[in-house]
Amino acid sequence: MRGLASAQDSLALGAKLAALVRPGDVIALSGPLGAGKTSIARGLLAALGLEEEAPSPSFAIVQPYAPPEVRFPVLHVDLYRIEDPGEAEELGLDDARYDSLLIVEWPERFDASTWHDALWLSLEVKPDGARGLTAKVPSAWEDRWPLI
Predict the structure, then answer these.
(1) Domain coverage including residue 54
(2) Which InterPro entries match (predicted)?
(3) pTM
């Protein structure tokens, strides 16, 4: 497990990921409220060209970004408010996976098989306030990881 000492470290991790991602990738961000999932997503989106701060998609559930706002299509997804995994089909995420990057917060709300090919980053808050980071790396990411 690696650590992220501050919110700036989470933003920097997102920026590093932006150099490696491509359309069709899925990054699953798991962890409790306040662990830094949205900070990683914001760092990634900023490094892909987003000029304003990305809002948390908690209420929208899916926040799309498209060129020229970002380098290629991105869907920032927050599944926190999803109660029924059957709602996945309504969100249209399967179709989006062909040409977009998916950044998914709270991926555990859907069946794990949904994200079988995702770079899965799990965050935990340590007693000192730092964030622990554990990565599950699928074969599609093996040549791009370790990042930090």
Answers:
(1) 2-92+99-140
(2) P-loop_NTPase, T6A_TsaE
(3) 0.90
